[in-house]
Amino acid sequence: AQSVTQPDARVTVSEGASLQLRCKYSSSVTPYLFWYVQYPRQGLQLLLKYYSGDPVVQGVNGFEAEFSKSNSSFHLRKASVHWSDSAVYFCAPNTGYQNFYFGKGTSLTVIP
Amino acid sequence: NAGVIQTPRHKVTGKGQEATLWCEPISGHSAVFWYRQTIVQGLEFLTYFRNQAPIDDSGMPKERFSAQMPNQSHSTLKIQSTQPQDSAVYLCASSPRDRSYAEQFFGPGTRLTVL
């Protein structure tokens, strides 16, 4: 069975600061890895995804994530956050046939 | 491309009433998923369809929830005898493939409030 942990339920940072949102998964095989973002009153949108190859993947709006097989992690980063990045971020590692698993989410608040 | 459309955006029902939620997936997508989102439980998988056929409903509460996809352009989630604990945001997503490597495209959700 697989599982995913986003240890930080809420994160608050100042505009312009760097950001890291953590995601750790448990799986017997290397999963496909996704980060989704949910803005207020909207559905989830894909930020980025990792299948294989270079462990650092680039996404939209300056986000990137780094896969670490040894640590079973897929942390999301951004060098300089903007107030519009305030949203809930979901990590979704998935193996096998279906894509049903999402973390609990990390709510990001960016203070202007 | 209008994206995934969900109607209504908000629905308020009284305890014991029926609620029907509608989803129009992106044209050409073969897989349709339903999720329930609450603060406490987060995002929970309910059920999904592939090419209109029900494939997995393992997340559906058995007694009062049902989902259908009568044609490729819409799916419905029906909740009978709604209870306050059914209050949640119900999200529909579609995907060009029902595989773990395929991105899902989400609708804005229907917020159901059961009084």
Quick summary:
The complex is a heterodimer of chains A (112) and B (115). With 112 residues, chain A is mainly β. Chain A has a single domain, classed as Sandwich (Immunoglobulin-like).
Notes on the structure:
The complex is a heterodimer of chains A (112) and B (115). By secondary structure, chain A is mainly beta. Chain A has a single domain (3-111), classed as Immunoglobulins (Immunoglobulin-like), CATH 2.60.40. Chain A is 0% helix and 50% strand. Chain A contains no helices and 11 strands. Chain B is mostly beta strands. Chain B has a single domain, classed as Sandwich (Immunoglobulin-like), CATH 2.60.40. In chain B, 0% of the residues lie in helices and 54% in strands. Chain B is built from no helices and 11 strands. Chain B has strands at 5-7, 10-13, 19-24, 31-38, 42-50, 53-56, 65-71, 74-79, 88-95, 105-106, 110-114. Chain B is globular. The termini of chain B are far apart. In chain B, 36% of the residues are buried. The mean pLDDT of chain B is 93.
Write out the strand line-up for the largest beta sheet of chain A, numbering strands in chain order: 2-11-10-5-6
Overall mean confidence score, pLDDT of chain B = 93
* DSSP strand count of chain B: 11
Count the DSSP helices of chain A: 0
CATH topology of chain A: Immunoglobulin-like
Radius of gyration of chain A: 13 Å
Helix/strand order of chain A: EEEEEEEEEEE
CATH class term of chain A: Mainly Beta
Do you know the CATH architecture of chain A?
Sandwich
Poorly predicted ranges of chain A: none
What's the domain count of chain B? Answer: 1
Give the low-confidence spans of chain B: none
**Nearest-angstrom radius of gyration of chain B?**
13 Å
The gross shape of chain A turns out to be globular
Question: What class, by secondary structure content of chain B?
Answer: mainly beta
Measured by residues with Cβ under 8 Å of the partner chain's Cβ, the largest interface is: A-B, 25 and 22 residues
Quick one: biggest sheet of chain A? 5 strands, mixed
Q: Into which percentage range does the β-strand content of chain B fall?
A: over 45%
The helix/strand class of chain A is mainly beta
Mean pLDDT of chain A: 91
- Strand runs of chain A, count: 11
